[in-house]
Inverse folding.
């Protein structure tokens, strides 16, 4: 008891949550795959459908409706102690289902970051690969060796070599537009590149969440297609926007198009480009989310 009092005093003095003994984190994850973030609290995006009073009385069933997105691989840092490299991967959890969007470029690094985030690869039921570049598919084999046995969703244009290799190890599904992947989660379908690419769309109560790997078909075209296909505003666009070589005029035109179709939040990373990320930050202000490896975003559905 004396030791616990000293620990609590230290936590109080420094204003930090250093150990579980100091009390629970700001968010207690119901899904065992993702533990509560203690060093940096998750960003919980506001809901338009629940009042503060309703949130306080939230049941376990309602908490399961939370959509949690955790960045596990990116070339931008966010949480200390995690590794960065060129590539992208994000874990999406919803209704007890776990989906890994892309697998980064280095399998060993992917697994080290997952271990640091207390993510068990064996509990990943689905893998969604945006396109066949090695910085998005490179961690796949390491993931399988670590115990994952996921249903794997790929664009039809993936090479026969890739299909033959992984079809012998896991169930591989070639996507079509609007194909359900898990609850309220869909493939936007393969779009022309080069290379051809698919984006993931989560149909949340707040609006659509669009996740992209590199957006080779054009980030504006992806967002417009999602808006037209699902006939809903876009709540969040997250991932690589592939705009490093775009002019300022082109970027501003894309931002204007985002706002025209009702994009509330943006979280550009990976191949977007530093200057472009800053342009989105200035344009979106509070609607801009700074992301990188270890960032956790929670959307109340």
């Amino acid at each position: 008891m004396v030791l616990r009092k000293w620990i609590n005093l230290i936590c109080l003095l420094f204003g930090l949550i250093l150990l579980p003994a100091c009390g629970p984190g700001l968010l207690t994850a119901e899904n065992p795959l993702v533990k509560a973030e203690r060093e940096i609290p998750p960003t919980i995006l506001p809901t338009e459908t629940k009042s503060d009073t309703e949130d306080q009385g939230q049941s376990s069933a309602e908490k399961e409706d939370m959509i949690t997105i955790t960045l596990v691989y990116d070339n931008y840092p966010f949480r200390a102690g995690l590794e960065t490299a060129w590539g992208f991967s994000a874990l999406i959890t919803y209704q007890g289902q776990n989906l890994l969007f892309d697998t980064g470029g280095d399998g060993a690094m992917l697994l080290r970051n997952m271990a640091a985030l207390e993510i068990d690869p064996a509990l990943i039921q689905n893998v969604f690969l945006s396109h066949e570049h090695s910085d998005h598919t490179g961690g796949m084999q390491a993931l399988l060796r670590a115990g994952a046995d996921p249903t794997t969703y790929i664009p039809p244009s993936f090479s026969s070599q890739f299909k033959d290799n992984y079809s012998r190890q896991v169930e591989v599904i070639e996507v079509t537009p609007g194909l359900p992947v898990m609850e309220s989660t869909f493939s936007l379908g393969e779009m022309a590149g080069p290379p051809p690419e698919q984006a993931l769309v989560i149909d949340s109560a707040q609006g659509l969440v669009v996740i992209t790997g590199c957006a080779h078909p054009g980030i504006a075209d992806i967002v417009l297609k999602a808006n037209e296909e699902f006939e809903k505003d876009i709540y969040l666009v997250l991932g690589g926007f592939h705009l490093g070589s775009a002019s300022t005029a082109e970027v501003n035109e894309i931002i204007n198009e985002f706002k025209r179709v009702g994009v509330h939040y943006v979280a550009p990373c990976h191949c977007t480009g530093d200057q472009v990320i800053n342009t989105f930050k200035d344009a979106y202000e509070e609607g801009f989310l700074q992301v990188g490896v270890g960032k956790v975003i929670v959307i109340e559905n």
Observations:
- The chain has two domains: 1-30, 31-300.
- Residues 2-14 form the longest helix (13 residues).
- Residues 53 and 251 are 40 Å apart (CA to CA).
- The two ends are 40 Å apart (CA to CA).
